[in-house]
């Protein structure tokens, strides 16, 4: 069902070549300096990956989620920090504008996003609303033809780089309403007065991708920047996260693939007891288990992306892909480090970075137990 077309094969090969030439040699540097090289961002623009899912009429490549997941796997195999930046940009900002935005909003925002002039960010999480996203308290109050935003968002991927952010706020504070009601979505240019970057997090992994606070202090945003209808923002957030979960599942497959490749390479050259350790059955079993999980995860990702491209419901399938692929990434990262032994615990080999990078995949875009909850509710309905 998911044999890649000639076009998708060409796109995958372009992403793979870029990852090999540009990302793998820079990945450790990105990790240590805690930001991506500007040259990498420019090359992503040249390849058209910032606007991969944006229609051609708005300056994009006009491809879908299957293409995006294929590209993301390759980018993340080279550098997970780069991969998550491209994933969030496409799936959490370009996609909701395309689906929920007015024609004026599409014409105003999508060309700058597709070209890479603006990098996108997604602002949902707050200090007291993580998995319980509907508990957000950042508010927006109407003032003429503007809304005034006040509050703080945290864990904003690309927060210090972003030119445009999709921000979820409470527009109806009525305590009698269910938490998920009364929330609206706004497209906020980060250069707007009253919007500033706050604290940057020092993270275990994916360090080249900055995660920051975005603080809103009497930030005046045009009412025309509301995405979708007033007080109807939460369904947008949940639908958008389905696409985001597919993106992070694809990231997980890419990280897992990198772990497998590093483990095989090391097992072929590390000699113990007079022979390469890859000759021992215990190591071979680890390699086999890694390969099976990667193949299964890739198929789950492709199925979810295929369904989303067809406009079919894919919430359960996205959760399945995210759940299994993120667990596979962590399994492969653990086995990769174990195969490397003590050497893998040092920064002489990239096994330790892959181990750190893999861990977040079970947390962001919906933690593992949230995916289980989504799946269980779907199959028990």
Describe the protein in words:
The strands form 3 sheets. Strands 1-4-5-8 form a 4-stranded mixed β-sheet. The chain is globular and about 80 Å long. The model has no long low-confidence stretch (mean pLDDT 97). It has 3 domains: 6-119, Orthogonal Bundle (Butyryl-Coa Dehydrogenase, subunit A, domain 1), CATH 1.10.540.10; 121-231, Butyryl-CoA Dehydrogenase, subunit A, domain 2 (Beta Barrel); 235-380, Butyryl-CoA Dehydrogenase, subunit A, domain 3. 52% of the residues lie in helices and 15% in strands. By secondary structure, it is of the alpha+beta class.
For the record, give the distance between the C-alpha atoms at the N and C termini, rounded to a whole number.
27 Å
The level 1 CATH classification of the largest domain is Mainly Alpha
Number of domains: 3
Shape verdict:
globular
Major beta sheet summary: 4 strands, mixed
- Protein structure class: alpha+beta
Oligomer: single chain
Poorly predicted runs: none
CATH architecture of the largest domain: Up-down Bundle
Order of helices and strands: HHHHHEEEEEEEEHEEHHHH
Q: TL;DR of this structure?
A:
The protein is α+β, with helices and mostly antiparallel strands. It has ten helices and ten strands. The protein has helices at 6-33, 38-47, 65-78, 80-100, 103-115, 233-269, 281-309, 315-340, 351-359, 368-380; strands at residues 120-123, 139-143, 146-157, 164-170, 183-189, 195-200, 211-222, 226-227, 271-272, 275-276.
């Amino acid at each position: 069902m998911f044999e890649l077309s000639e076009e998708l094969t060409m796109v995958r090969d372009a992403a793979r070549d870029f990852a090999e030439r540009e990302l793998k040699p820079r990945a450790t540097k990105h990790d240590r300096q805690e930001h991506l090289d500007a040259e990498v961002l420019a090359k992503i623009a040249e390849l058209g990956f910032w606007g991969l899912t944006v229609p051609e009429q708005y300056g994009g490549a006009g491809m879908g989620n299957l293409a995006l997941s294929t590209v993301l796997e390759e980018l993340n195999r080279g550098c997970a920090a780069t991969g998550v930046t491209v994933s969030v940009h496409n799936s959490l900002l370009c996609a909701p504008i395309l689906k929920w935005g007015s024609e004026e909003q599409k014409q105003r925002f999508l060309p700058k996003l597709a070209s890479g002039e603006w990098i996108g960010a997604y602002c949902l999480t707050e200090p007291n609303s993580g998995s319980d996203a509907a508990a957000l308290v950042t508010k927006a109050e109407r003032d003429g033809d503007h809304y005034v935003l006040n509050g703080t968002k945290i864990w904003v991927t690309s927060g210090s780089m972003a030119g445009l952010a999709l921000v979820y706020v409470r527009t109806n504070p009525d305590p009698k309403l269910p938490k998920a009601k009364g929330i609206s979505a706004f497209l906020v240019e980060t250069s707007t007065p009253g919007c500033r970057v706050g604290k940057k997090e020092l993270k275990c992994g994916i360090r080249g991708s900055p995660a920051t606070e975005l603080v809103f202090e009497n930030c005046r945003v045009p009412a025309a920047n509301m995405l979708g209808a007033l007080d109807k923002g939460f369904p947008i957030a949940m639908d958008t996260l389905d696409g985001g979960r597919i993106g992070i599942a694809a990231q997980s497959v890419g990280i897992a693939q990198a772990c497998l490749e590093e483990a095989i390479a090391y097992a072929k050259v590390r000699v113990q007891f007079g022979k390469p350790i890859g000759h021992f059955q215990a190591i071979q079993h680890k390699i086999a288990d890694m390969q099976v999980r990667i193949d299964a995860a890739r198929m789950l990702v492709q199925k979810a992306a295929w369904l989303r491209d067809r406009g079919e419901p894919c919430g359960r399938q996205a959760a399945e892909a995210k759940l299994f692929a993120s667990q596979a990434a962590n399994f492969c990262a653990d086995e990769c480090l174990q195969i490397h032994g003590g050497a893998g615990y040092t920064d002489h080999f990239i096994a330790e970075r892959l181990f750190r990078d893999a861990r977040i995949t079970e947390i962001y875009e919906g933690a593992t137990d949230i995916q289980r909850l989504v799946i269980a509710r779907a199959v028990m309905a």
